Amino acid sequence: MRIRDITMDGFTVKIAPFSFDAAEEYLKTNRELKAKNPPPTEADWTERVLQTVCASLNKAAGNTNGNAPWDVKRVRAELDMVFVFYLHDEILRMSGIKLAQPGEALATST
Fold first, then answer.
1. Chain mean position to CA 23
2. Cα-to-chain-centroid distance, residue 68
3. Which of 16, 42, 56, 88 has its CA 20 to 30 A from that of 5?
4. d(CA 27, CA 36)
5. What is the arithmetic mean of pLDDT over 89-104?
6. pTM
7. Is 25:101 a contact under the CB 8 Å cutoff?
8. Spatial separation of the C-alpha atoms in residues 99 and 57, rounded to whole Å
């Protein structure tokens, strides 16, 4: 499994990408959420971001990180908003879901 260290302002965590199956499920759920009537709220999307970050942190740490697994409550308490959204972007990029930066490989689903 690939694991990447992500550092911001001297604080480092490890993240892991989605598996192929998990990436396809993520994309499927996004399509379903976008088609909902009424549409998802900003709070719904934020919860999705937080759940994605938790899953990646836990996967990279073998389901533990320090004394306790990451959950939404811990992420909200220990990480700031800028870092959470940065981690989310990196997780999507690493999983091939978000466009890669120049020089990075991009995986696509068929």
1. 10
2. 18
3. 42
4. 15
5. 79
6. 0.82
7. no
8. 21
